[in-house]
């Protein structure tokens, strides 16, 4: 049996059973309907497990798992009494500061590791430790080094993420084909020009995509960083810890666990839009930010050439 015949039979089988086609495309409306159906099934199971007028009538005690009605009834109290909006902004600020520092340090170090194997060998033990150390075990270390304030929370996110940023950046640089380097050398480019004008621009789409995914990881880590609170600076993790105490609102925990993925998803979609606009040739965006950055770089080069030209003419005898 020839290969085209097998392909034709596979196509006919997929057309007869589109829902069960292997690795088949899913239309957008089907994806939305299936996603809503999945949430509905989870909600129905939650309602069934917590239904009952009295606690003894329920399959799961309300102390362990409140019902959907009891949970959403406390949303107003969470919004106003627990200052939900303010605590979301506190958590985001901590994540942005810590992860921003990890990106500022990790990307240049990763570029150097991807370009120079000796630097990669020197940094490798630190990145192996950073990628494999238990995150919860780092918390006491950050308390001892940085105290209990906002700086400690930002440094915890930095330590938890910087090794991942370095390794992903180094891999993105190292995976660039050598033919680009050979072509640049043939055209007379220096080593510095090859790094800044060839390797970094080619690797930047992958680096940005890695940073976007790692930001979601950092957003999960911040819940651990907010274990210890000072000056009522709770954050979302602080609200969860407060709700776990005696007399706390267990409904707050469920609401926060629903809010965190929504906030993370919104940030991820925003970063994905930025990614598509910065790198339209790879991700299919309109290229608005790409053109803006390109114009800014051209203006910078023109200004630098103008200043250097005036300096050269001034120094000319």
Question: What does this entry look like structurally?
Answer:
The relative contact order is 0.08. The chain has helices at residues 3-16, 28-49, 68-73, 75-80, 84-115, 117-132, 135-146, 150-174, 178-186, 191-225, 235-244, 250-278, 280-283, 288-315. It has 317 residues and is mainly alpha-helical. The chain contains 14 helices and no strands.
Ordered list of secondary-structure elements with their pairings:
Elements: H1 3-16, H2 28-49, H3 68-73, H4 75-80, H5 84-115, H6 117-132, H7 135-146, H8 150-174, H9 178-186, H10 191-225, H11 235-244, H12 250-278, H13 280-283, H14 288-315
Helix pairs in contact: 5-6, 5-8, 5-10, 5-11, 6-8, 7-8, 8-10, 9-10, 10-11, 10-12, 11-12
Comma- or semicolon-separated keywords:
0% strand, 317 residues, single chain
What's the average pLDDT?
85
Largest sheet: none
Structural class based on helices, strands and sheet pairing: mainly alpha
Helix content: over 70%
Question: Care to give the gist of this entry?
Answer:
The protein has 317 residues and is an all-alpha fold.
């Amino acid at each position: 049996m020839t290969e085209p015949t097998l392909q034709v039979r596979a196509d006919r089988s997929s057309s007869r059973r589109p829902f069960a086609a292997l690795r088949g495309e899913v239309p957008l409306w089907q994806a939305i309907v299936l996603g809503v159906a999945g949430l509905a099934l989870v909600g129905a199971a939650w309602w069934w497990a917590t239904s009952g007028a009295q606690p003894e009538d329920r399959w799961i005690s309300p102390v362990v798992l409140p019902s959907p009605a009891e949970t959403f009834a406390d949303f107003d109290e969470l919004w106003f009494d627990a200052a939900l909006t303010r605590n979301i902004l506190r958590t985001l600020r901590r994540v942005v500061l810590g992860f921003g520092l990890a990106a500022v340090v990790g990307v240049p170090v990763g570029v150097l590791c991807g370009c120079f194997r000796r630097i990669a060998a020197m940094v490798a033990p630190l990145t192996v430790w950073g990628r494999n150390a238990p995150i919860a075990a780092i918390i006491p270390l950050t308390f001892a080094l940085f105290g209990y304030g906002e700086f400690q929370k930002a440094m915890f996110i930095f330590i938890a993420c910087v090794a991942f940023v370095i390794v992903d950046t180094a891999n993105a640089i190292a995976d660039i084909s050598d033919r680009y380097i050979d072509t640049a050398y043939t055209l007379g480019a220096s080593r510095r020009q090859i790094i800044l004008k060839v390797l970094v621009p080619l690797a930047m789409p992958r680096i940005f995509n890695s940073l976007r995914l790692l930001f979601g990881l950092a957003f999960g880590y911040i819940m651990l960083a907010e274990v210890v609170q000072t000056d009522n600076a709770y954050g979302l993790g602080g609200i969860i810890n407060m709700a776990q105490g005696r007399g706390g609102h267990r409904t707050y925990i469920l609401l926060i666990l629903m809010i965190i993925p929504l906030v993370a998803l919104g940030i991820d979609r925003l970063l994905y839009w930025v990614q598509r606009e910065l790198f339209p040739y790879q991700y299919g965006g309109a290229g608005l930010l790409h053109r803006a950055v390109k114009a800014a770089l051209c203006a910078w080069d023109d200004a630098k050439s103008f200043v250097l030209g005036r300096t050269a003419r001034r120094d000319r005898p």
